[in-house]
Design goal:
The chain has 8 helices and 3 strands. The protein is mainly α and about 300 residues long. Helix 8 links the parallel strand 2 and strand 3.
């Protein structure tokens, strides 16, 4: 199991419980208060429960150790979970938007002000969850956690839209008779846009996009801190779940024995894995150091 995976799983479980409670509250109050925007916000929160379950499953299966058929582990399941969340957001946004458009053809009712209290409470909870998940996503380099955090930020934005819609429809029903429904359509559009963004970002990881220069510099610096490591010809890394697998071309003295070079490479591998927790493994290829790097 990758470092900090239990914490990531705990975040996913908390998100499932919070999303279920908020969805039940908002949909119930939305029906009682005659607010389509709050109902839409509640349906979006119900979608969050599904997204968080996908997140939990993705993190759980990605933590499975490497085996004979999966020598690099099962980390890509976490990336697939991010893609599944994106696809789910697009689908749920499209359904929500279509249902709201059909509702526009029906007589519009004025929402009760209690709907606003519910949405304000939801925004507070989602702000906490979004910040918690985003910090964890950056720490663990998790595509699925980042997707779920973005979904929570969307909840905050959709809550603000719902508040504006309910307020306009309640205080100025003659001027803004369709504000509640329009707010619901805007929320649906935001859900779809976020879904496409999540799909795009997770797809880059499936294509083995290289990490940032800062990440590679940290790996290089750690490798060169080992005595006998004279240079790094190539340093590549690919993400598998919450960790990276590194390919390193290590330069050593050309006249040393194979056994000595093997010892140096082993120390480099151990140093990187011990010092950098987000590195799962290091594959090292030995190269003779060029003349200017020799001692």
């Amino acid at each position: 199991m990758a470092p900090d995976t239990p914490l990531a799983l705990r975040i996913a479980r908390v998100s499932v419980v919070a999303g279920l409670c908020l969805a039940t509250l908002k949909i119930s109050v939305g029906y009682w208060a005659n607010s389509l925007a709050v109902i839409a916000d509640g349906i979006e929160s119900a979608g969050d429960v599904v997204a968080s379950v996908i997140l939990w499953l993705g993190l759980r299966f990605s933590a499975e150790p490497a085996d004979e058929n999966h020598p690099y582990g099962h980390g890509r399941v976490e990336i697939l979970a991010g893609q599944a969340i994106g696809a789910f957001l697009i689908t749920s946004g499209a359904i929500l938007g279509w249902q709201t458009i059909l509702h526009l053809q029906q007589p519009q009712s004025i929402p009760r002000p209690l709907a606003l209290v519910t949405v304000f409470f939801s925004i507070g909870v989602k702000l906490f969850l979004a910040r918690w998940k985003m910090r964890a996503a950056r720490r663990f380099l998790s595509a699925a956690l980042e997707a779920d955090a973005a979904n929570d930020w969307l909840d905050v934005l959709s809550g603000v839209v719902a508040i504006c819609a309910v307020a306009l429809n309640y205080w100025q029903p003659q001027r803004f008779p369709h504000a509640d429904s329009v707010g619901s359509i805007l929320i649906a559009a935001l859900v779809i846009v976020l879904g496409f963004k999540v799909l795009r970002d997770s797809s880059w990881e499936l294509l083995d996009t290289m990490p940032s220069a800062e990440v590679l510099a940290e790996i290089r610096a750690c490798a060169l801190s080992v005595p006998g490591a004279l240079g790094i010809e190539k340093c590549r890394a690919r993400k598998t779940g919450l960790q990276y697998h590194v390919d390193l071309h290590l330069e050593v003295q050309p006249d040393i024995t194979v056994d000595s070079a093997h010892t140096i490479s082993g120390k480099v591998r151990s140093a990187i894995r011990q010092s950098i927790p987000w590195v799962a493994d290091v594959l090292i290829h030995i190269e003779p150091a060029p003349e200017q790097n020799k001692n």
